[in-house]
Amino acid sequence: MSPARKAPRQHGSEEALPRSFWALLGAGVGLGTASAVAASSSALAAYFARRIVTPERVRIEDQEVLAVQGTGAQRRIILKATPETVVDGDYSFFFDAGAGHARLGRLEDYVPGEGTVTRPVVTEYSGDLDRAVRGRWSGVVYSSPADLGYDFEDVLIETELGVAPAWLVPAPNGATTTWAIMVHGRGATRQESLRGLIPARQLGFTSLVVSYRNDGDAPATADGRYGLGMTEWRDVEAAIGYALEHGASDIVLFGWSMGGAISLAAADLSSLRQYIRALVLDAPVVDWVDVLAHQAQKNRIPRGVGRLGQFLLAHPWGRRITGLAAPVDFRAMDWVTRAVELRTPTLILHSVDDEFVPFGPSALLAGRNPEMVTLETFRKARHTKEWNVDPERWESSVVTWLTETLAPRLTPGQGRQLGQ
């Protein structure tokens, strides 16, 4: 029996840094004197570096609600058109500081001249949508495994920092001893990775949907900072240990965005890495330097400011400014340069128009290590919304690839049969 759901706290998919941050950077660059420019650039680079590794506890609700109409199957919401709301697919709308959560269906009407979009309200998980004035768009769709019709348990995983909550979704009829571990991205929570349960369930996997340090669910570190994958993998290792203790023989890691960087680090560094048979990565960060450079260029930030921010994150001296307990090892997380060292079969699903984590490094990684890396290219999905735009293709790609990759470990004929 699944436990009753609680109202979700604020969560969502990984996003770019706030507009206010980029505006502040741009303003600083405009100062008149050389000394003022140097001082401003240093201060802004420090701010840049801190923002990268500091979890955001309050998410900006910048999506305007124009109207909510009807009831039941006829219920509709009219929103201001934005680059996100005009893209087809199912999404979530969070409002009332994250206490309200509604699932919205596929695009029904888009009026460019009026700048409005209309979508059906599929489910209202929590809150009073009629009273919503503003909210936040998200690629999250489901609130808990129960929304998919799956039984689940709330479990606690012992990590080096304390217990981290997870959802355990048992395999149907104990079909296989392969377990899937779902790892969400930066600024998100477990709800982001619920989409991965669908193909995992088809393949007969038991799934663990995990939390990790500093994500607001799991214990925080003393510095309260993201390690961008270089520290969080230890919590994934603890989840692997939990799975092995409870009957797993093989592990597949699913990772979204920074969750991809975490999964790659686990496959590289964990003492249990021999049990990781495959990686399924959605819009993964495979080169943080490229991500940070992309954000700076996109927002017209001088290259030197961005490089100084990277230096502060990577150098032991910068810890006094960033608040990190240890510097970030960008070289260790540069999987484009380290492509031939990746020896775990990996499926990457990535949209060419990703506005936060560029598609290019994923393509380079796949090109440099075609033996281990398979790339499924999507379009018009932006960041971590490949499933939202085309769930059938996303799920079938995962099922087909995992069936072929894990064929000797699945029940004969099972994976192929369930995937078709």
UniProtKB/TrEMBL annotation:
It comes from the Bacteria. The chain crosses the membrane at residues 21-49. The keyword Glycosyltransferase does not apply. Pfam families: Abhydrolase_6. The keyword Transmembrane helix applies. Residues 181-358 form the AB hydrolase-1 domain. Keywords: Membrane, Transmembrane, Transmembrane helix. PANTHER family: ALPHA/BETA-HYDROLASE, ALPHA_BETA HYDROLASE FOLD-1 DOMAIN-CONTAINING PROTEIN. This is Lysophospholipase.
